[in-house]
Write a structure and sequence with these properties.
Layout lengths: L2 H16 L5 H4 L1 E7 L4 H14 L3 E7 L2 H9 L5 E4 L5 H4 L6 E15 L8 E2 L1 H8 L9 H4 L13 E5 L4 H13 L1 H6 L12 E3 L1 H11 L3 E6 H6 L6 E3 L5 E2 L3 H9 L23 E9 L5 H14 L13 E2 L2 H12 L4
């Protein structure tokens, strides 16, 4: 080969060496979401597993609380929102176009506490409401002691911990308290954010769990996985059948089984009937526009949602969430299939 004939090959090699390397991460399509911290462990797992199914898309999810998730999807600063409390009719009316609630999983809000020896406590709804109203202030109060015979409770102040941010976990908790206490219902009510009569605030489920773990005498409400991750004990709660039930996948499934789920998928499952039903349980929703403005993102989001309601639901139990019943999954898939781009 002469020198002239080798020049094109040399030029090609030099061009290849000088060409910038392709960054596969930057080539990924980014889908942004924000909202509830209650389902954050399962969503994080879903996004991680789905990256193996479709490496071309990456999900960026910020756990900022359900209130923040609702605001961001309404302003369309994210591609999807997430909330543990269904949006009100008034809020939905402010959406620029039809916004759907897509239920994903259900879970338990547990009552965690920090006491010497961390005994296994039993509590009922009226007593819990009285604690959060600031009326029961000592751990050895007869209202608590009477439900826990044989347990030596200290004459220690109860430090109430609640969420400081707009929270679907708070919605489930205050929805429950409103269902068991007329005083709570009239004075405080149910919402993602309320005027708390007493106590200290913590940001997110992790913030509340952290406060309870650090302060002796504290009581707080968190999602079951956060209590387990932080080694916190949690109470058995007296349900509507008068039975003390421990929070678990099985007792949440029992509560979900008796819930009435309407066409728009906005429903409550607190204080559900049934001897095996855990009373402080709730579903969590993704908030997705029925008509997607970005066709490419919309198609990728729909593909992910279809995977979530077939393969993703199988991962729920391993993270202490209850999967949706098969009949509800089928209804949700129908809704997802009708999303347009």
């Amino acid at each position: 080969m002469n020198k002239l004939s080798s020049l094109p090959a040399i030029a090609a090699c030099l061009l290849a060496l000088s060409a910038p390397a392709v960054n596969t991460a930057s080539a990924q399509l980014l889908i942004n979401g924000a909202g509830a911290t209650f389902p954050q462990p399962i969503y994080t797992k879903w996004f991680s597993e789905y990256a193996k199914v479709d490496p071309s898309v990456r999900f960026n999810y910020q756990g900022i609380g359900s209130g923040g998730g609702q605001k961001q999807i309404l302003s369309e600063t994210v591609d999807f929102g997430a909330s543990d409390g269904p949006m009100s009719d008034a809020n939905l009316a402010t959406a620029p176009r039809k916004l759907w609630h897509i239920p994903t999983v259900a879970g338990a809000v547990v009552i965690s506490y920090n006491l010497p020896g961390n005994p296994h406590l039993h509590l009922d709804g009226p007593t819990l409401a009285a604690i959060y109203l600031g009326k029961v202030t000592k751990w050895n109060d007869p209202a608590i002691a009477g439900q826990n015979p044989g347990i030596s409770l200290p004459a220690q102040d109860i430090l109430v911990v609640h969420r400081s941010d707009g929270s679907g976990t708070s919605y489930i908790f205050t929805d429950y308290l409103s269902s068991v206490s007329s005083e709570w219902a009239s004075k405080v009510g149910k919402n993602t954010a309320v005027q708390w009569p007493t106590g200290l605030g913590g940001k997110g489920n992790a913030g509340v769990a952290g406060q309870v773990k650090q302060a002796s005498g504290a009581i707080g409400y968190v999602e079951l996985a956060y209590a387990r991750q932080n080694g916190l004990p949690y109470a058995d709660m007296r349900n509507s059948s008068g039975v003390y039930v421990s929070p678990s996948i099985e007792s949440v499934v029992a509560a979900l089984a008796s819930a009435s789920i309407p066409e728009d998928f906005r429903f409550s499952m607190v204080n559900s009937p049934g001897e095996k039903a855990y009373p402080i349980a709730g579903a969590t929703w993704l908030l997705v526009y029925a008509q997607q403005k970005d066709s490419v993102k919309g198609q990728k989001l729909v593909a992910f949602l279809k995977w979530a309601f077939t393969e993703g639901e199988k991962l729920a139990a391993s993270l202490d969430y209850a999967p949706l019943p098969g009949s509800v999954q089928a209804r949700v898939l129908e809704r997802i299939n009708s999303i347009t781009f």
